[in-house]
Amino acid sequence: MLFRGIKSGIQSFANRSLVRLKASRSEIESKQKELMSRGLPKRKSITGVNQIVVVASGKGGVGKSTTAVNLAVALKLLNPNKTVGLLDTDIFGPSIPLMMNVQESPLLTKGVLLVTTPQKAALQVTQRGAVLFQKLEVPVIGIVENMSHVVCPNCQHSSSLYGHGTKDLASNLGISLLQEIPLDPAITKYTDSGKPVVIAEPDSVQALAYKTLGRRVCEFLATQEMNSN
Ligand SMILES: [Zn+2]
Fold this sequence. Notes:
This protein is α/β, with parallel strands linked by helices. The protein has one domain (5-222): 3-Layer(aba) Sandwich (Rossmann fold), CATH 3.40.50.300. It has helices at residues 15-23, 25-37, 64-78, 96-99, 120-135, 165-173, 185-192, 197-200, 205-222; strands at 5-11, 51-56, 83-89, 112-116, 140-145, 149-151, 158-160, 177-180. Strand 6 and strand 7 form a beta hairpin. Helix 3 crosses helix 9 and helix 5 runs parallel beside helix 6 (165-173). It starts with a strand and ends in a 7-residue tail after the last helix. Zinc ion (ZN) binds at residues 152, 154-155, 157.
């Protein structure tokens, strides 16, 4: 594995954006056609960034930022010699064309990590997102399920909160369920205090889950081509 930098983009597209996306598909297509007719757009790479991971979800409140932050830290811990950056961006809102490769902007094609929770509503938008990325031929690294289960602090008994819908969705889509992150109030506490749980409690179940996720993302990135600059 030979990457010097990973840019991890957090993007947030709210339901609003999804609706907009659906409503304006033909609009996008005609815009894309128009721009394509001027000649093929250049896919611009970001100087110094070899690989990009997009942490995406179709819905707010599923722990996307927490996942991105802890994943970034885990990737750095796993690859101390490499530089990991974190970019908070909204690639669905005002900048759909960017994703559609219709303008000269950095194109996020390296790999998407979908973040969801197991509730039905979240799974539905995750499915839409996954189908969209597959249509755009953006490789989907896998799905991360937050609030997967709770672990009893007394007996460590693990209890599933909403069933196994995420697993079913992943297998229907042919996408790996990369990691199931248990619900723990500590995650929120540490995120709010500016200390990712991977650093604050490195041996906790959550931290270990993020580190395993980081390893799986690294394995995926090792199979992907890198920007040459
Ligand atoms: Zn118990």
